[in-house]
Amino acid sequence: MGDRKTWSEICHAEEFRGRWVALDHCRYDQMTMQPIEGDVVDTDDDLGSLCSRMREAGRSSCAIRFCDSDDAVEVPSSRLAGGEVRAAAR
Fold first, then answer.
1. Is 55 helix (H, G, I), strand (E, B) or coil?
2. Which residues contact 64 (CB under 8 A, 6 or more apart)?
3. Contact residues for 47 (Cβ-Cβ < 8 A; gap 6+)
4. Quick one: which of 33, 35, 30, 29 has its CA closest to 62?
5. CA 69 – CA 29 distance, rounded (Å)
6. CA 85 centroid distance within chain
């Protein structure tokens, strides 16, 4: 994987819809602190399986979100956090 995508692009892609998505090197919305862009490193239907693979691969700094088409809202660039921020995997 490793493709950099916005959360909106991810939510509109059939391959991610209804799945858990692990993101690395994220940009976050300043208001919600949700990742809005990042490198897609892995996906899975099962959160536990995804987290296990992330842990085994040493990727403990990824943000993990569930991809739902209702969540595909673009965030204005004026609300984006500057720089790179990472969230711990759950």
1. helix
2. 20, 21, 22, 23, 47, 50, 51, 54, 89, 90
3. 20, 64, 66
4. 35
5. 18
6. 12
Domain boundaries, the chain: 3-79
Q: What is the pLDDT along the chain (90 residues), one digit of tens a residue?
A: 668 999 999 999 999 999 999 999 999 999 999 999 999 999 999 999 999 999 999 988 899 999 986 665 554 444 444 443 344 333
Residues 6+ apart with CB under 8 A from 42: 1, 21, 22, 50, 53, 54, 59
User: Measuring CA to CA, how many Å separate 47 from each of 23, 54, 75, 81?
Assistant: 13, 11, 25, 27
Residue type, 65: R
